[in-house]
Amino acid sequence: MPELPEVESVRRGVDEWTAGTTITGAEVLDPRILGTTSQRRIDASAVSGFVSAVTGAHILKAERRGKFMWLSLVEGADLSTADPVTSPVSRPELGILVHLGMSGQLRIHSPGEDIHRHTRAVLHLDSDRELRFVDQRIFGHIGVQPLVHGYGRLVPASAVHIAADPLEPAFDPEAVVGELAKKRTAIKAALLDQTLVSGIGNIYADEALFRAGVHPLAVPARTRKSRLVAVLESATKVMSDALAVGGTSFDALYVNVNGESGYFERSLTVYKKHGTPCKRCGTTIAREKIGGRSSHFCPRCQRRR
Ligand SMILES: [Zn+2]
């Protein structure tokens, strides 16, 4: 599952190719992509509704919060003459939300290029390019949503409950540490709670706890604040490090997406390293189920207190 660094790598590529373009048309090749994992039966009116909502819209930019990514849209505006700060037409009201799910990819193509057989939706752009959503297993989603205010900025309605992520300006580390310090669950579970801090998934939670030397079962309410600060700082750092290498695989007409490994895999210290020696102390890395998810940690570097 792509986490923040993987989604951000994709967002950067998508933004580079789509910001400032106008959508001249859209095709939904498989209506299931407009649904969600709990509802994949989509009627024809949803397809025509999607196509008419996006056709003629202007893409301001590709945005992201946590693992959510969207294209913010302005409808039918001539932005060539509009003042981006003061003009009301430049304020986006709709967004195209894109969930990559497990296997989703966004790719940029020229119009005549072969359509990959798992292509589910296509946006035609006035830049003579196409943004194609390819998703082999259909765990992903694309859809139009109103933008609403959530944690200091406009976000798609379904992301309104998602807290700011550590790489965005709206992130307030002191406030998050304050909230984290009230939690009586395992710190591993708290880090995965997207309403507290977004973007951290299983991989980076395990890596952050290792870097901070904190056991995944530590209870935040009984942990020193300086250690909670260290965990959040480690999460920010490890995701930044991953992003730095994830961004390198973007090339010409291909928007990179494979969230499963990327180049960061060789830098992982504990995630899925159970049974191998800790890089720091040589103790065998352990694995334990916490809150239904596998946690990987060094029993010596991350002692329970
Ligand atoms: Zn160790």
TrEMBL record:
The keyword Zinc applies. Residues 269-303 form the FPG-type domain. Its EC number is 3.2.2.23, 4.2.99.18. It comes from the Bacteria. Residues 2-140 form the Formamidopyrimidine-DNA glycosylase catalytic domain. The active site is at 2 (schiff-base intermediate with dna), 3 (proton donor), 67 (proton donor), 293 (proton donor). Belongs to the FPG family. NCBIfam families: fpg, PRK01103.1. Involved in base excision repair of DNA damaged by oxidation or by mutagenic agents. Acts as DNA glycosylase that recognizes and removes damaged bases. Has a preference for oxidized purines, such as 7,8-dihydro-8-oxoguanine (8-oxoG). Has AP (apurinic/apyrimidinic) lyase activity and introduces nicks in the DNA strand. Cleaves the DNA backbone by beta-delta elimination to generate a single-strand break at the site of the removed base with both 3'- and 5'-phosphates. Monomer. This is Formamidopyrimidine-DNA glycosylase. The lineage of its organism: Bacteria, Bacillati, Actinomycetota, Actinomycetes, Micrococcales. The gene is mutM.
